[in-house]
Amino acid sequence: MPTPRRRLASTCVGTVTAGLLASGAALAAPDEEAPKGSDIAMGAYLDYGPSGVARIPYLSNWLGGKEIRVGHTYLPGDRWAGIEGNVGFLADWAAWRREDDDRMFVLNVPMQERNEERVSDRQVAQLIRAGAQGDYDPHFKRLAERLVGLGVPDTVIVLGWEMNGTTYTHRCGPDPENWKRYWKRAVAAMRSVPGQKFTFDFAPNRGTDAIGWTKCYPGDDVVDIIGMDSYDQGPGTDFDEQISQPYGLQQHVDFAKAHGKEISYPEWGLFRRGDNPEYVRRMLKWIEQHKPLYHTITDYCPHGVWQCKQNPQSSKVFKEALTPQKPGPVTPTPVVPTPVVPTPVIPTPVVPTPVVPTPQVPTPQIPTPQVPTPQAPSVPPVVPPVVPPVDVPAEPSAEPSVEAPVSPSPEVPVVEPSPAVPSPAAPSPVAPSLAAPSPLTPVATPEPVEPTTPKPPVNNTQWCVPLNFGEWLSKLVGNQAVCVKLDWRKGWLWPF
Q: Hey, what domains does the chain have and what are their CATH numbers?
């Protein structure tokens, strides 16, 4: 804390800072327009009691409707009764927190009474050793019971803040080792209360101050958040040095990352350098870059930007950065109806599929040739004439007698027909229809039949006369002859 004016002396709660954690304002470079806020939880310390609660919606309106998600106040550190939460305004903050599950209640808790009375280092060392031995455990247990009873068991407890400085009786420098033991006992006492869900925030001053704050770190088991209070003052002449100095902003981020903890900025604001918009712009940009769990600006003079009118330039930067961007008026785009051009429906011509008949190849009928069977001409049988027997007298001597030639009888000699010679049949006046031979069927060519003329045997009594029927009939019936048998021994003489 840069000034005692933020503390409430004796019976009042010190004028404490509940910062406005600019919920993720997207921050711009110095020569750029500041981007608008993000979703980082933001708030402001506006007053410790009911008036602080009442001012939250007005701050939200000033920021163009920005949601204020963090309510921040302090318990008085003058007596143990106040540290135990036996104050009426605590119920007002609890009621505000319960209205919305997305809200966060941050409560700074002193570790010693007479916390702003400039107690000497020797006395502080004695108080630290008493706390390490457990003498003050009941006070912290009663505070936990009070918060659970008010329905805010998930309160963020900023315990013994700025312990690396010289201002408060709960400072760490006079006895760092026992101070860490004392922190552990206070956390253990509050966690012993049934129903609690507290989150403990270890928040030193930026820079070395009286002692390097890492020497006061009590351990990962009793710390949930590693915070830092960072006002526009030394050490460091500008914001770059505030980042790079020993125990500065960069070391804070690196230390928290090494220990697996989230970071926070419970207090930040203007101070020694007056109205400094560059500091406000750079601090908001740093917050947006490193995404703390929350941050709150101390909003009273000389630190503030809303309730303090002596910092107009810084106030403008803060407001522009955190006011949500609102869309401009929407100019409706005239709807020009697209003319509907009817698409002509062109019927698809139906082309009939030609039916190609399957050609029927007739099977040729090959007629069987009818060869007529030749009918032999019927020849009436020739009946031989009856020749009376002739008595031949016995020859008287051995010499053969020569018969006298016998004149032929006037009777018709008997002509014996040749055996079984068929008469050729007269051809039918209608010639048989011969089918044309198939080109695939060979036509047998009849071989010529050589006419055979029967030759009578030698010394035969039969005389044959050949018959000529013509060339065509002769081929069918063959050569025929009519034979006459002559018996020379009965007086017939060969006419030649």
A: 4-322 (3.20.20.80), 454-496 (no CATH)
